[in-house]
Amino acid sequence: QVQLVESGGGLVQPGGSLRLSCAASGFNFGSYTMGWLRQAPGKEREFVAAIRPSGGNGYYADSVKARFTISRDNAKNTVYLQMNSLKPEDTAVYYCASTDNWTCRFTTTCRTSDYYNDWGQGTQVTISS
User: Fold this and answer.
1) How far is Cα 71 from Cα 114, in angstroms, rounded to an integer?
2) For each of the chain's 129 residues, which pLDDT tens digit applies?
3) Cα 13 from chain centroid (whole Å)
4) Burial class (CB in 10 A: 0-12, 13-18, 19+), 128
5) Buried-state track 69-90, b at ≥16 Cβ within 10 A, e below 16
6) Is 40 helix (H, G, I), strand (E, B) or coil?
7) Which of 19, 39, 66, 110 could form a disulfide with 115 if both were Cys (CB 3.0 to 4.6 A apart)?
8) Which of the 8 DSSP states describes residue 74?
């Protein structure tokens, strides 16, 4: 059974940092593209970042580029999202998601929810002074 468990959310002041983690189990993690998406109150879920199975550089939404970094440790079945220079508009529930979509393995086009098969329960991130 696929399980994705996020952790690391919380309340931080603007300009602060957080590191989210997502522990995966129940599937061949090293063969899946992993993504982070978020949903703010009253808004649709939006893409944040994704990283292909082999790792390397991820790809990002323009709103978080140069502030957020996605990484993965295939030995630990874990994907991370380092978030720096946080802004109030980053406030949202952050979801970890996985996909075995073939396109996602080789492109940077998997930027919508419908590419992803499985989801975690989400972790709340609140940026406020």
Assistant:
1) 22
2) 999 999 999 999 999 999 999 999 999 999 999 999 999 999 999 999 999 998 888 999 999 999 999 999 999 999 999 999 999 999 999 999 999 999 898 888 899 999 999 999 999 999 999
3) 20
4) exposed
5) bbbbebeebbbbbebeebeeeb
6) coil
7) 110
8) T
